[in-house]
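[job 4471] stage=fold_predict status=RUNNING
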Amino acid sequence: MNVQIQQVHTPQGLRWQVSLDQHTVVFASEVEARQFVATLQTRLQAPHLLPEHEQRVAS
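[job 4471] inference complete, writing structure tokens
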């Protein structure tokens, strides 16, 4: 996943935009944007287990 943070000009003033491939999320501050990215990266890197039923089917 390509994640980018950039400052953008909006009608509400300067905001921070996080781009996740083709999806964007806008934040009021750089701190909020960077916290969002850090949380996202932690969740993506966390171990993910398949439900037991799916593990049996895949075997």
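[job 4471] summary: Strands lie at 3-10, 13-20, 23-27.
[job 4471] exit 0
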